[in-house]
């Protein structure tokens, strides 16, 4: 944190993360209030995942071919414009909420809901380019690789802290100041993040090892790298399926209003996983995972699944908050182990392409997981769908522990497997 450019990077990422968390909370709450449909909540994730996945592999190639700052700044600028568009749409949306009883469902979707999905779709394209560029840019801000494990933990801790503040602030803004004001705060914070990103000095691309690849080979090289490394592949797959099946966050507006009968608790429930994550990340900053890191990751993901099942069955607001808190604690272990593995085993000149595949595995699985949660809730009921997802997560942990011996035996000492 004494490095000026890394400090600017962390500040920009914190502002941006808080802003996008506020935005996500407001959009989810708006769409749920307009439609009262859990599937509509799931479609939010799908609207972002489809464009993000579509551009990810090409975006990874671009991140390894162009100075990373030249990608980060335009991508954040597009997201700033999306935030201002949501703010601009907020007033007619507020009026639509008041007129909801006089609008038929088709008119409601055509005039109000679909414009929100369109903005989310555009933001998904920008995020598809931003994610690999940020992943590859961060290590370039460090003087050498000895700082990398600590930088990863600080970056993760900052993001998790932002994820604590964002939903809580978003919930409070919705409750007391309205959606227009909430979108205004989101927009201003994204502008500040953009200014901090602009202030970071650009860096040359790392030297390429071996022959320069053609476009098609370059795009697919990240996939080939991951699938040739059992350790990285197992960690990514485990995290991906846990997020895909075990996420209850997308359905929290429904749980708050209809299961726990406490709509005002939505912001607190939404922040609970991030509270757990940031506290565990801070703990791991001072007590890094080394001995038995692979086994601890497996147990953590299994604990994530078990806490998800228990949350689905809970009818007590305080117990539900605690169980969501535990999902964040367990998730932090998995995230830090996975991030450290990918950064450690990936050559610098390939980090954009490998990060793009990582985004498809992990980042987009959050959005697709939201859609899966919404679709499963529509098909089998909200509570049974979350129970099913948690049980699936525990089953995937058992399968991974059986098949991926390198991950099971992983120690986090330098160079060890």
UniProtKB/TrEMBL annotation:
It is a multi-pass membrane protein. Keywords: Cell membrane, Membrane, Transmembrane, Transmembrane helix, Transport. Pfam families: MFS_1 (PF07690). GO terms for molecular function: transmembrane transporter activity. InterPro entries: MFS, MFS_dom, MFS_trans_sf. Residues 1-407 form the Major facilitator superfamily (MFS) profile domain. This is Multidrug efflux pump Tap. It comes from Hymenobacter coccineus. GO terms for cellular component: plasma membrane. It is found in: Cell membrane. Its main location: membrane. CDD domains: MFS_MefA_like (cd06173). The chain crosses the membrane at residues 12-32, 38-59, 71-90, 114-137, 158-177, 231-256, 268-286, 298-315, 321-341, 383-402. PANTHER family: ENTEROBACTIN EXPORTER ENTS (PTHR23513:SF9), INTEGRAL MEMBRANE EFFLUX PROTEIN-RELATED (PTHR23513). Belongs to the major facilitator superfamily. Drug:H(+) antiporter-3 (DHA3) (TC 2.A.1.21) family. Signal peptide: none annotated.
């Amino acid at each position: 944190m004494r490095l000026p450019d890394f400090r600017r990077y962390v500040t920009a990422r914190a502002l941006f993360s808080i802003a996008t968390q506020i935005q996500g909370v407001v959009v989810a709450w708006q769409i749920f209030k307009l439609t009262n449909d859990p599937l509509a909540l799931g479609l939010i994730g799908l609207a972002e995942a489809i464009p993000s996945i579509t551009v990810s592999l090409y975006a990874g190639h671009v991140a390894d071919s162009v100075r990373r700052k030249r990608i980060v700044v335009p991508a954040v600028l597009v997201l700033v414009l999306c935030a201002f568009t949501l703010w601009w749409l907020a007033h007619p949306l507020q009026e639509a909420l008041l007129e909801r009883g006089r609008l038929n469902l088709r008119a409601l979707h055509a005039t109000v809901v679909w414009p929100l999905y369109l903005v989310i779709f555009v933001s998904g394209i920008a995020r598809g380019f931003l994610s690999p560029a940020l992943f590859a840019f961060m290590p370039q801000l460090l003087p050498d690789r000895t700082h990398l494990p600590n930088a990863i933990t600080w970056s993760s801790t900052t993001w998790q802290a932002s994820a604590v503040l964002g939903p809580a602030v978003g919930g409070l803004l919705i409750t007391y100041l309205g959606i227009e004001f909430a979108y205004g705060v989101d927009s201003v914070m994204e502008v500040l993040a953009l200014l901090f990103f602009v202030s970071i000095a650009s860096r040359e691309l790392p030297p390429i090892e071996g022959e320069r690849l053609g476009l098609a080979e370059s795009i697919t090289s990240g996939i080939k790298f991951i699938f040739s490394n059992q350790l990285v592949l197992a960690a990514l797959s485990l995290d991906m399926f846990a997020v895909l099946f075990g996420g209850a966050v997308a359905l929290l507006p429904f749980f708050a209003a209809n299961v726990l009968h406490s709509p005002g608790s939505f912001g607190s429930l939404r922040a609970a996983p991030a509270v757990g994550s940031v506290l565990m990340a801070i703990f791991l900053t001072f007590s890094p995972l080394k001995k038995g890191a692979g086994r601890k990751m497996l147990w953590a993901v299994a604990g994530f699944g078990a806490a998800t099942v228990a949350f689905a069955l809970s009818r007590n607001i305080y117990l539900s908050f605690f169980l969501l808190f535990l999902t964040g604690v367990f998730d932090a272990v998995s995230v830090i182990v996975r991030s450290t593995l990918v950064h450690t085993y990936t050559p610098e000149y390939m980090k954009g392409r490998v990060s793009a595949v990582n985004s498809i595995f992990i980042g987009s699985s959050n959005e697709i997981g939201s859609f899966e949660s919404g679709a499963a809730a529509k098909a089998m009921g909200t509570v049974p769908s979350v129970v099913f997802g948690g049980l699936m997560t525990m089953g995937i942990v058992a399968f991974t522990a059986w098949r991926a011996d390198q991950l099971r035996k992983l120690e986090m000492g330098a160079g060890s497997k």
